[in-house]
Amino acid sequence: MDNATVATIEVRELPPLHVAYVRHTGPYQGNPEVFGSLFGRLCTWAGARGLLGRPGTSLLAVYHDDPEVTEASKLRVSVCLPVAQDTPVDGEVGKMTVTGGKYAVGRFELGPADYQNAWNLIYGRWLPESGFEPDDRLCYESYPMDLKAATEGKHVVDLCVPVKPL
């Protein structure tokens, strides 16, 4: 898989997550500046409220649309931070719940150009042989904030694909 490293892909039961988010509508694939801006704005908001730095916290990128089906100008992605359900939000920061349930979770070490290949590995190679199929909940990437990548310039990321048995 090019320069990406995959450690494991396993099916796990994940809890629902209450998250604060900043959303982008439009093209985002292959554009790290979009994600950098979104994460920067969310972390600035969260940092001022003391919401960053908790052990076990992950940032998320939640994908609302399938780029194979949805026109690029209408694609939506939300960058998120899990928060308490009663956390007040304001301005461009909204709140939603990421549905829990059964997910295929692939842990990868990815550089900026490796994300599409990682998604292709899960959907194109792992899923057809797994005995599962995707369901209609949202896919997301989870970036554990307390894990450091072993390779410079890469991030540890969990790709989370909602699944159900065939």
Strand content: 35-45%
> Regarding CATH, which class of the largest domain?
Alpha Beta
Averaged pLDDT: 91
The N- to C-terminal Cα distance equals 26 Å
Helical content (DSSP H or I, runs of 4+):
10-25%
> What class would the helix/strand composition place it in?
alpha+beta
The CATH superfamily of the largest domain turns out to be Regulatory factor, effector binding domain
Number of domains: 2
Any idea what the radius of gyration is? 16 Å
| Count of helical regions | 2
SSE run: EEHEEEEHEEE
Describe the structure concisely.
With 166 residues, this protein is of the alpha+beta class. The protein has helices spanning 32-48, 115-126; strands at residues 5-14, 17-25, 58-63, 76-82, 94-98, 101-110, 132-134, 139-144, 155-165. The chain has two domains: 1-14 and 101-133 and 147-157, no CATH class; 17-98, Multidrug-efflux Transporter 1 Regulator Bmrr, Chain A, CATH 3.20.80.
